Amino acid sequence: MSLKPTFLKKNDLILVISPSGVVDEALVVGGANGLKRAGYRIEFTPNTFNAHFKFGARHQERLSDLQFALDHTEAKAIYCARGGFGITHIIDALDWTQFKENPKWIIGFSDITALLNAAFQNGFSSLHASVLQGFPKLSGAYQNKLIESLSGDISNLQAESTFHKPGKASGQLIGGNLSLLVHQIGTPTELDYAGKVLFLEEVAEPLYHIDRMLLQLKRACKLKDLAGLVVGQFTNLSEDKSIYGQSVEEILVFHCQDYDYPIGFNFPFGHGDDIVPLVHGADVDFEVNGREANLKYLINHAESNLPI
Prior knowledge:
Blueprint: E1 13-17, H1 25-37, E2 41-44, H2 59-71, E3 77-80, H3 87-90, H4 97-101, E4 105-108, H5 113-121, E5 126-128, H6 140-150, E6 157-160, E7 167-177, H7 178-184, E8 197-203, H8 207-219, E9 228-235, H9 241-244, H10 248-255, E10 263-264, E11 278-280, E12 283-289, E13 292-297
Parallel strand pairs: 1-2, 1-3, 3-4, 4-5, 7-8, 8-9, 9-10
Antiparallel strand pairs: 5-11, 6-13, 7-12, 12-13
GO molecular function: carboxypeptidase activity; serine-type peptidase activity
Keywords: Carboxypeptidase, Hydrolase, Protease, Serine protease
Protein name: Peptidase U61 LD-carboxypeptidase A
Protein backbone atom coordinates (compact mmCIF):
# COMPACT_ATOMS: atom_id res chain seq x y z
CA MET A 1 0.00 0.00 0.00
CA SER A 2 1.36 3.43 -0.92
CA LEU A 3 0.34 6.80 0.48
CA LYS A 4 -0.73 9.60 -1.79
CA PRO A 5 0.49 13.13 -1.16
CA THR A 6 -2.21 15.78 -0.88
CA PHE A 7 -3.63 16.73 -4.26
CA LEU A 8 -3.16 20.34 -5.30
CA LYS A 9 -5.43 23.34 -4.82
CA LYS A 10 -5.33 26.69 -6.57
CA ASN A 11 -2.30 28.80 -5.62
CA ASP A 12 -0.30 25.78 -4.46
CA LEU A 13 3.42 25.81 -5.26
CA ILE A 14 4.99 23.55 -7.90
CA LEU A 15 8.78 23.26 -8.10
CA VAL A 16 10.34 22.62 -11.51
CA ILE A 17 13.55 20.59 -11.71
CA SER A 18 15.77 19.16 -14.46
CA PRO A 19 17.16 15.95 -12.92
CA SER A 20 18.03 14.25 -16.21
CA GLY A 21 18.68 15.66 -19.69
CA VAL A 22 19.25 19.22 -20.88
CA VAL A 23 15.97 21.05 -21.53
CA ASP A 24 14.44 23.31 -24.14
CA GLU A 25 13.92 26.47 -22.08
CA ALA A 26 11.17 27.89 -24.28
CA LEU A 27 9.10 24.71 -24.03
CA VAL A 28 9.61 24.41 -20.27
CA VAL A 29 8.59 28.04 -19.74
CA GLY A 30 5.59 27.41 -21.99
CA GLY A 31 4.58 24.46 -19.84
CA ALA A 32 5.06 26.50 -16.68
CA ASN A 33 2.86 29.25 -18.08
CA GLY A 34 0.14 26.69 -18.73
CA LEU A 35 0.24 25.66 -15.07
CA LYS A 36 0.19 29.30 -14.00
CA ARG A 37 -2.94 29.87 -16.08
CA ALA A 38 -4.47 26.92 -14.24
CA GLY A 39 -3.90 28.79 -10.96
CA TYR A 40 -0.65 27.32 -9.62
CA ARG A 41 2.50 29.09 -8.48
CA ILE A 42 5.71 27.98 -10.20
CA GLU A 43 9.31 28.18 -9.04
CA PHE A 44 12.33 26.94 -10.98
CA THR A 45 15.14 25.33 -9.01
CA PRO A 46 18.54 27.04 -9.50
CA ASN A 47 19.92 24.69 -12.15
CA THR A 48 16.75 24.07 -14.17
CA PHE A 49 18.10 25.77 -17.30
CA ASN A 50 21.75 24.83 -16.98
CA ALA A 51 23.44 22.37 -19.32
CA HIS A 52 26.43 20.07 -19.07
CA PHE A 53 26.77 18.28 -22.40
CA LYS A 54 23.67 16.02 -22.58
CA PHE A 55 22.77 16.53 -18.92
CA GLY A 56 20.58 19.23 -17.40
CA ALA A 57 23.55 20.28 -15.25
CA ARG A 58 26.50 18.61 -13.56
CA HIS A 59 25.55 15.59 -11.46
CA GLN A 60 26.09 17.41 -8.15
CA GLU A 61 24.04 20.39 -9.32
CA ARG A 62 21.12 18.21 -10.36
CA LEU A 63 21.36 16.28 -7.11
CA SER A 64 21.33 19.53 -5.14
CA ASP A 65 18.20 20.75 -6.93
CA LEU A 66 16.38 17.46 -6.49
CA GLN A 67 17.27 17.18 -2.82
CA PHE A 68 16.15 20.79 -2.31
CA ALA A 69 12.82 19.94 -3.93
CA LEU A 70 12.31 16.76 -1.90
CA ASP A 71 13.02 18.65 1.33
CA HIS A 72 10.86 21.69 0.52
CA THR A 73 8.25 22.30 3.20
CA GLU A 74 5.76 24.37 1.16
CA ALA A 75 5.71 22.86 -2.34
CA LYS A 76 2.94 20.39 -3.17
CA ALA A 77 4.48 18.98 -6.36
CA ILE A 78 7.84 18.46 -8.05
CA TYR A 79 7.50 18.69 -11.82
CA CYS A 80 10.36 17.23 -13.87
CA ALA A 81 11.14 19.41 -16.87
CA ARG A 82 12.45 16.60 -19.05
CA GLY A 83 13.50 12.95 -19.11
CA GLY A 84 16.38 11.94 -21.35
CA PHE A 85 19.18 10.40 -19.30
CA GLY A 86 20.78 11.17 -15.98
CA ILE A 87 18.48 10.44 -13.03
CA THR A 88 20.19 7.15 -12.17
CA HIS A 89 23.52 8.97 -11.78
CA ILE A 90 22.15 10.73 -8.70
CA ILE A 91 19.23 8.69 -7.37
CA ASP A 92 21.14 6.58 -4.85
CA ALA A 93 22.43 9.74 -3.10
CA LEU A 94 18.94 11.06 -2.28
CA ASP A 95 17.76 11.39 1.31
CA TRP A 96 13.99 10.85 1.60
CA THR A 97 13.70 11.73 5.30
CA GLN A 98 12.23 15.22 4.91
CA PHE A 99 10.09 14.17 1.95
CA LYS A 100 8.29 11.70 4.21
CA GLU A 101 7.45 14.59 6.54
CA ASN A 102 6.28 16.82 3.66
CA PRO A 103 5.31 14.50 0.79
CA LYS A 104 4.53 15.98 -2.60
CA TRP A 105 3.59 14.69 -6.03
CA ILE A 106 6.53 13.85 -8.26
CA ILE A 107 5.52 14.23 -11.91
CA GLY A 108 7.25 12.92 -15.02
CA PHE A 109 7.97 9.80 -17.06
CA SER A 110 10.58 8.16 -19.31
CA ASP A 111 13.95 8.56 -17.51
CA ILE A 112 11.95 9.79 -14.49
CA THR A 113 10.64 6.21 -14.12
CA ALA A 114 13.52 5.54 -11.73
CA LEU A 115 12.47 8.46 -9.51
CA LEU A 116 8.83 7.31 -9.48
CA ASN A 117 10.05 3.85 -8.48
CA ALA A 118 12.13 5.33 -5.67
CA ALA A 119 9.12 7.28 -4.40
CA PHE A 120 7.12 4.04 -4.41
CA GLN A 121 9.87 2.28 -2.45
CA ASN A 122 9.59 5.03 0.14
CA GLY A 123 5.85 4.49 0.41
CA PHE A 124 4.39 7.16 -1.88
CA SER A 125 2.45 7.36 -5.11
CA SER A 126 3.45 9.68 -7.94
CA LEU A 127 2.15 10.83 -11.32
CA HIS A 128 3.42 9.16 -14.47
CA ALA A 129 2.62 12.00 -16.86
CA SER A 130 4.10 14.25 -19.52
CA VAL A 131 7.25 16.08 -18.50
CA LEU A 132 6.83 19.85 -18.37
CA GLN A 133 8.74 20.32 -21.63
CA GLY A 134 6.11 18.16 -23.32
CA PHE A 135 3.12 20.04 -21.92
CA PRO A 136 2.91 22.67 -24.72
CA LYS A 137 2.88 19.87 -27.32
CA LEU A 138 -0.22 18.22 -25.85
CA SER A 139 -3.61 19.00 -27.34
CA GLY A 140 -5.90 21.18 -25.25
CA ALA A 141 -7.94 18.18 -24.12
CA TYR A 142 -4.89 16.33 -22.84
CA GLN A 143 -3.45 19.44 -21.21
CA ASN A 144 -6.73 19.62 -19.32
CA LYS A 145 -6.46 15.96 -18.30
CA LEU A 146 -3.02 16.61 -16.87
CA ILE A 147 -4.15 19.72 -14.99
CA GLU A 148 -7.22 17.88 -13.68
CA SER A 149 -5.00 15.07 -12.42
CA LEU A 150 -3.11 17.51 -10.19
CA SER A 151 -6.31 18.15 -8.23
CA GLY A 152 -7.18 14.45 -8.04
CA ASP A 153 -9.50 14.10 -11.03
CA ILE A 154 -7.82 11.02 -12.49
CA SER A 155 -9.27 9.38 -15.59
CA ASN A 156 -9.90 5.66 -15.84
CA LEU A 157 -8.47 4.23 -19.06
CA GLN A 158 -9.88 2.15 -21.89
CA ALA A 159 -8.18 0.63 -24.92
CA GLU A 160 -9.05 -1.58 -27.87
CA SER A 161 -6.81 -4.11 -29.59
CA THR A 162 -7.00 -7.46 -31.33
CA PHE A 163 -3.99 -8.62 -29.27
CA HIS A 164 -5.68 -8.38 -25.85
CA LYS A 165 -5.45 -11.41 -23.56
CA PRO A 166 -8.66 -11.71 -21.50
CA GLY A 167 -8.92 -11.84 -17.75
CA LYS A 168 -9.45 -9.84 -14.56
CA ALA A 169 -6.90 -8.57 -12.07
CA SER A 170 -6.50 -6.24 -9.11
CA GLY A 171 -3.31 -4.84 -7.67
CA GLN A 172 -1.03 -1.85 -7.35
CA LEU A 173 -0.19 -0.10 -10.59
CA ILE A 174 3.58 0.22 -11.11
CA GLY A 175 5.89 0.50 -14.09
CA GLY A 176 7.03 3.05 -16.64
CA ASN A 177 9.64 3.05 -19.36
CA LEU A 178 10.83 -0.45 -20.29
CA SER A 179 14.51 0.53 -20.61
CA LEU A 180 14.50 2.17 -17.19
CA LEU A 181 12.75 -0.77 -15.53
CA VAL A 182 15.35 -3.16 -16.92
CA HIS A 183 18.07 -0.71 -15.85
CA GLN A 184 16.86 -0.97 -12.22
CA ILE A 185 17.33 -4.75 -11.95
CA GLY A 186 20.03 -5.55 -9.41
CA THR A 187 20.07 -1.99 -8.03
CA PRO A 188 18.62 -0.36 -4.88
CA THR A 189 15.65 0.94 -6.91
CA GLU A 190 14.60 -2.48 -8.23
CA LEU A 191 10.91 -3.10 -7.48
CA ASP A 192 9.07 -6.25 -6.43
CA TYR A 193 6.66 -6.97 -9.29
CA ALA A 194 4.79 -9.87 -7.67
CA GLY A 195 1.05 -9.25 -7.54
CA LYS A 196 1.36 -5.90 -9.30
CA VAL A 197 -0.36 -4.55 -12.41
CA LEU A 198 2.64 -3.57 -14.53
CA PHE A 199 2.47 -0.83 -17.16
CA LEU A 200 5.07 -0.43 -19.91
CA GLU A 201 5.97 2.08 -22.62
CA GLU A 202 9.02 2.67 -24.83
CA VAL A 203 10.38 4.94 -27.54
CA ALA A 204 13.01 4.90 -30.30
CA GLU A 205 14.23 1.34 -29.84
CA PRO A 206 14.70 -1.39 -32.46
CA LEU A 207 12.49 -4.42 -32.01
CA TYR A 208 15.42 -6.63 -31.07
CA HIS A 209 16.19 -4.30 -28.14
CA ILE A 210 12.58 -4.60 -26.98
CA ASP A 211 12.78 -8.38 -27.32
CA ARG A 212 16.04 -8.45 -25.34
CA MET A 213 14.70 -6.20 -22.57
CA LEU A 214 11.52 -8.24 -22.17
CA LEU A 215 13.61 -11.39 -22.09
CA GLN A 216 15.70 -9.81 -19.32
CA LEU A 217 12.54 -9.09 -17.31
CA LYS A 218 11.42 -12.66 -17.85
CA ARG A 219 14.78 -14.20 -16.90
CA ALA A 220 14.85 -11.99 -13.80
CA CYS A 221 11.44 -13.47 -12.84
CA LYS A 222 9.72 -10.09 -13.13
CA LEU A 223 6.95 -11.25 -15.46
CA LYS A 224 5.84 -14.57 -14.02
CA ASP A 225 4.01 -13.35 -10.90
CA LEU A 226 2.31 -10.23 -12.23
CA ALA A 227 -1.39 -9.64 -11.64
CA GLY A 228 -1.75 -8.02 -15.06
CA LEU A 229 0.12 -6.20 -17.83
CA VAL A 230 -0.94 -2.83 -19.29
CA VAL A 231 0.86 -1.90 -22.51
CA GLY A 232 1.06 1.71 -23.63
CA GLN A 233 2.71 3.37 -26.60
CA PHE A 234 5.83 1.95 -28.25
CA THR A 235 6.66 4.80 -30.60
CA ASN A 236 9.30 5.81 -33.17
CA LEU A 237 10.66 2.28 -33.40
CA SER A 238 13.73 1.95 -35.60
CA GLU A 239 12.66 -1.45 -36.96
CA ASP A 240 9.35 -2.87 -38.08
CA LYS A 241 7.93 -6.37 -38.36
CA SER A 242 9.20 -6.78 -41.92
CA ILE A 243 12.77 -6.57 -40.56
CA TYR A 244 12.48 -8.44 -37.26
CA GLY A 245 9.62 -10.85 -37.96
CA GLN A 246 7.52 -9.92 -34.93
CA SER A 247 5.62 -6.84 -33.85
CA VAL A 248 5.83 -5.39 -30.33
CA GLU A 249 2.51 -7.03 -29.53
CA GLU A 250 3.69 -10.41 -30.77
CA ILE A 251 6.94 -10.16 -28.80
CA LEU A 252 5.04 -9.37 -25.60
CA VAL A 253 2.52 -12.16 -26.14
CA PHE A 254 5.37 -14.60 -26.80
CA HIS A 255 7.21 -13.78 -23.57
CA CYS A 256 4.01 -13.96 -21.49
CA GLN A 257 2.42 -16.99 -23.14
CA ASP A 258 2.94 -19.23 -20.11
CA TYR A 259 1.24 -16.83 -17.68
CA ASP A 260 -2.47 -16.57 -16.89
CA TYR A 261 -2.87 -12.85 -16.22
CA PRO A 262 -4.70 -10.39 -18.51
CA ILE A 263 -2.76 -8.25 -20.99
CA GLY A 264 -4.14 -5.09 -22.55
CA PHE A 265 -2.56 -3.16 -25.41
CA ASN A 266 -2.79 0.28 -26.99
CA PHE A 267 -3.33 2.35 -23.85
CA PRO A 268 -2.81 6.13 -24.23
CA PHE A 269 0.40 6.69 -22.29
CA GLY A 270 4.02 6.86 -23.37
CA HIS A 271 5.90 9.06 -25.85
CA GLY A 272 2.98 9.69 -28.18
CA ASP A 273 1.45 13.06 -29.00
CA ASP A 274 -1.29 12.77 -26.38
CA ILE A 275 -0.86 10.86 -23.13
CA VAL A 276 -3.04 10.29 -20.08
CA PRO A 277 -1.56 10.59 -16.56
CA LEU A 278 -1.33 7.43 -14.45
CA VAL A 279 -1.12 7.24 -10.66
CA HIS A 280 1.96 5.13 -10.02
CA GLY A 281 1.29 3.04 -6.91
CA ALA A 282 -2.52 3.26 -7.00
CA ASP A 283 -4.78 0.26 -6.42
CA VAL A 284 -6.59 -0.63 -9.63
CA ASP A 285 -8.96 -3.12 -11.20
CA PHE A 286 -7.91 -4.30 -14.64
CA GLU A 287 -10.30 -6.20 -16.90
CA VAL A 288 -9.77 -7.40 -20.45
CA ASN A 289 -12.70 -8.79 -22.40
CA GLY A 290 -12.59 -9.38 -26.14
CA ARG A 291 -11.25 -6.30 -27.92
CA GLU A 292 -11.79 -4.00 -24.92
CA ALA A 293 -9.57 -3.45 -21.89
CA ASN A 294 -10.41 -1.26 -18.88
CA LEU A 295 -8.17 0.10 -16.13
CA LYS A 296 -10.14 1.48 -13.19
CA TYR A 297 -8.91 3.18 -10.02
CA LEU A 298 -10.46 1.82 -6.84
CA ILE A 299 -11.09 5.14 -5.06
CA ASN A 300 -12.15 8.66 -5.90
CA HIS A 301 -8.81 10.41 -5.50
CA ALA A 302 -10.23 13.89 -5.17
CA GLU A 303 -12.38 12.94 -2.18
CA SER A 304 -10.09 10.61 -0.27
CA ASN A 305 -7.04 11.11 1.90
CA LEU A 306 -6.65 7.39 2.48
CA PRO A 307 -3.72 5.31 1.25
CA ILE A 308 -4.00 4.16 -2.35
